[in-house]
Write a structure and sequence with these properties.
Structural class: mainly alpha
Bound molecules: heme C
Shape: elongated
Helix content: 55-70%
Oligomer: single chain
CATH topology of the largest domain: Cytochrome Bc1 Complex, Chain D, domain 2
Radius of gyration: 31 Å
């Protein structure tokens, strides 16, 4: 009886003093690791919160934001547009008639901020951060569906407001067709839009 108990304890349960110490040390190491991790998470959160609450985040539009702010905001904005915008072809085809209609809409609703075709701001445009892309000068890499989506919903915390309250989906698809083609227009369409822009 005693023998068999010893045997069992010996096989499975007998404490090896060295092993016990090792287990305890491992437990303590794990505790330290978890505390370290919590502190590592809590400190940056507290610092970021304090930075904002103490008014240290710059909000003036006439001071350019830093590289990191630009990088974070641009990356987030473009990734969100890519994710949310429909992946569909423009139902409004880029016929001359539609491009002219889109050009008229652009002149009325977008050009004040994004610039007029053939009349670059030359550094004297509205100052906003994030800056307004001067579309006739820099164009855009967005697809027509993405331009439509940005024009419709706007971009939060920027000057790019949502146009859906005053413009129908059809007119926004029409302006998207124009924006995508604004730098590769047939010459007579371009000329006509520039003449429309010249009218008082
Ligand atoms: C009050 C100024 C303002 C008006 C008016 C405006 N936008 Fe914008 N738009 C902005 C700003 C600012 C941005 C930059 C937002 C950013 O970078 O996060 C922007 C960004 C965009 C972009 C994204 C371009 C890119 O490549 O990243 C598109 C497309 C766009 N606007 C289309 C339009 C269209 C179409 C209209 C007219 C229906 C319009 N916008 C009217 C201020 C304006």
């Amino acid at each position: 009886m005693a023998d068999s108990r010893n045997l069992i304890v010996g096989r499975e349960g007998r404490r090896c003093p060295l092993r016990g110490n090792q287990n305890r040390r491992e437990g303590e190491d794990m505790k330290k690791f978890l505390i370290g991790m919590l502190v590592g998470i809590a400190v940056p959160v507290i610092v970021a919160f304090g930075y904002l609450r103490l008014g240290m985040a710059e909000v003036r539009a006439d001071i350019p934001p830093g590289r990191w702010e630009n990088y974070l905001m641009n990356t987030g904005m473009h990734a969100s547009v890519k994710r949310e915008a429909p992946n569909a072809p423009n139902p409004v085809l880029p016929t001359d008639e539609n491009l002219i209609a889109g050009g008229k809409l652009y002149l009325g609703a977008c050009a004040g901020c994004h610039g007029r075709p053939g009349k670059p701001f030359g550094g004297k445009g509205p100052i906003l951060y994030p800056p307004i892309p001067e579309l006739p000068v820099v164009g855009t890499e967005l697809s027509e569906a993405q331009i439509f989506w940005v024009a419709k919903h706007g971009i939060r915390r920027t000057g790019m407001f949502a146009n859906e309250v005053w413009a129908s989906d059809e007119s926004l698809w029409t302006v998207a067709a124009y924006v995508k083609h604004m730098n590769s227009l047939p010459p007579d369409v371009r000329g006509l839009i520039e003449r429309l822009d010249a009218k008082p």
